[in-house]
Amino acid sequence: MSKNNFQVTLFYVIINVLILSSIDMNSKKYLILIGISLLFIGVALFVFSSDGKQSLDTIPSILKSIPTNKPPSQSSSPSFDLTGWKLTLPLMSSANSKDPLEIRQPELASYQINPWFRATSDKKGFVFRAPVNAPTTANSTYPRSELREMTADGKDEFFWSSKKGTHTLFIEEAITAVPKNKKDVVAGQIHGDDDDLIVIRLEDNKLFLARSKKNLATLDDNYVLGKKFTIKFVAQNGKILTYYNQNPKPIYTLEKKVDQAYFKVGVYTQSNCETEESPNLCSGDNYGEVVIYQLRVTHE
Fold it and tell me: Which carries the bigger pLDDT value, residue 185 or residue 76?
């Protein structure tokens, strides 16, 4: 039995079933259509099973297109809660502006833009990329693709105090690219009272905690691009504790009473066209990049 004939037969059976559902079960028409439907089903099954070349792959497409209550599959994104964040991108906000583009809620909830902020191919992380030739924020000469803490509704900038409550940021991440000449990126930070309180920094192969470019604690003397690591910041009682790779003992404690602090996560590329020292390196192909796999924030 050919595939086309089989499809026609099965299609006819389906039509009969639909007709049967609208006919009184006690009528003669109902019994006659039952008999015809069973006859066609029997013939179709006999011929289908006797033809060794047929397979389940020949089930007609009409069956595959029958609508169900199951929603269509969608490409998933990493399960990050970006409600309390805004995103600064290495793109101009408009043709007449030098300011970088910002994305806020509710747009950020489903926002991606390749290659600057996108899900990884396996949907397990988010890629943040900032090239050396991108626009910068007002108080910086370096570009970023970075999240900044916001209020729960994502509308206003959020601040917390290290003197009150407990404020925690957990990140699992990997630095995947650095600029070609000045191999320097920041992969997360706490900003407060108009100052960078503490940052996660990679210079050449050294991964460390820094403040005002000073090495506070070395995390990895020979970091390899793409290697995952975890950082947990805990701010409480006028102190900021940093935990590395889920060690129960903090690798560094900063004693700092700050009134207005906030977390930032992503990539802050510490180079630009000037520091790259070559026109050939002043391009979108020369960038810093960080992949975030887990991101959790709590304020208690």
Answer: 185
For residue 101, the one-letter residue type is L
Q: What is the pLDDT of residue 151?
A: 94
Using CA atoms, how far apart are residues 271 and 134, in angstroms rounded to an integer?
10
Type of residue found at 164? K
- The string of pLDDT tens digits covering residues 169-203 is 999 999 999 999 999 999 999 998 878 899 999 99
What one-letter code names the amino acid at 54?
Q
pTM exceeds 0.90:
no
Q: 43 or 170: whose pLDDT is higher?
A: 170
The yes or no reply on domain 85-299 and CATH 2.60.120.200 is yes
pLDDT more than 90, % of the chain: 66
Domain ranges in the chain are: 3-64, 85-299
What is the pLDDT at residue 28?
Answer: 55
| DSSP output for the chain | --HHHHHHHHHHHHHHHHHHTTS-TTSHHHHHHHHHHHHHHHHHHHHHHH-TT--GGGS-HHHHT---SSPPP---------TTEEEEEEEESSTT--SEEEE-TTGGGG--BTTTEEE-TTSS-EEEEEETTS---TT-SS-EEEEEEB-TTSSSB--B-TTSS-EEEEEEEEEEE--SSS-EEEEEEEEETTEEEEEEEEETTEEEEEETTEEEEEEETT--TT-EEEEEEEEETTEEEEEETT-SS-SEEEE---SSEEEEEEEEE---HHHHT-GGG-STTSEEEEEEEEEEEEE-
Would you state the pLDDT for residue 202?
Answer: 98
The answer to whether 90 and 102 are in contact (CB under 8 A) is no
User: Strand pairing of 117-119 and 100-103?
Assistant: unpaired
